[in-house]
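hey can u check if this looks right to u? its 386 residues, i copy pasted from the old doc so theres a chance i mangled smth
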Amino acid sequence: MDIFGLTPIDAALSAWGLNCSQKLTEFFFNQTFLGVTAFVAGFVWSLWQSVREVNFKHFAVFVVISLTGTILFIPHKYQQSSVKSAVEVYGASKNTAQSINVTLTNGHTIPTILSFIGQMADMVSIGTISILDAALSNNAKFLGDPFGPQKLSLQIHQIVHAPLEDVHLRESLGDFIYAQYLPSLIMYQNKTPILYDLHSLSPEKFRYDNSQWDNLKLRLGTLTAAGPWARIKGTLSQMGIRQNNLDEAIFASIIRGQIQAGENNWPWSWAMSTQTFFPYIMGWANFCVYVSFPVLMLAIVIVRRMGLFLRYAEIFLWVKSFYLTSAISYYISLMIAHLQAQTSVQANWFWDYPHYAVVASVLLCLMPVLTLLGVHQSFQLINHRT
């Protein structure tokens, strides 16, 4: 069976977690006497409790748990074939899950039952997301590029508010802004220019040197024809959003960004960090869930409390819900993006005011908390009824 995840990063970390889980199992039960010691301790304790209380329920529970572990979980393992991710299947990715997995570990043996349960849960989530993607009226699919539009908006926002890398272009643009453009804008509006969105850069509207601006437009056009800027039109088209006066909006944003350089942009940088690291969070969560399973088996054999198993199942189900909650965050964010587009005249909202991207990051943090509460309440209800 292939190991399948949402992104190459979380898929590789999940595969590594399964591999480490198998290594721990072999260490406990094959290479050391820790597993045997746990079974002996559980046997003696359960037998002593049964004799003391004249009730063999404790010993019967120990026998059931022991047989379940020795028959289903401990002996069964198989060779992992490959590691894949939904992003590789439905979209495009610079890295592959298989290449990342190779750098993490050279082991390929994983536990059969644990891997099967984990993969079935992941496949159900990814299958549900693919159905939701198919129902979208645009081509901005979550599985093709999770949070791709949001990260593009935030990346361009950072570029706009950072000094231009081309020193000569930065100096020429600075001379134009402070020697011609801002004085003309102040004369035209008789107010502080930073308070206004500088959408139009027409020399007919503002009195400045037309030839100098034409030269700057050519140089800025060359700059924005590559890199993240070049992906704006395609991304907006995929999202089904109109693109009015896109070039003018880009030039105006660059000028505004140079004027407002140094302002506090922490909400945007925080949102970018959240979306960049969410595959790592999902991957490490899966890793911890898988690696902790052998330790959980030893604890259950000794103490024979099914509450431990139910708590593990609760955490397991919560971690496996991360794919769906992140997709829901993405879809809600796209809805807000369309609302922003409808209320904006220019396309510069996409990178100057990417509020929809910040909402996606807030939901990325909030949805797991709500899911944890929901899963916990569900298991509490199950415990109460049983």
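The beta strands are 3-5, 77-79, 83-85, 109-111.
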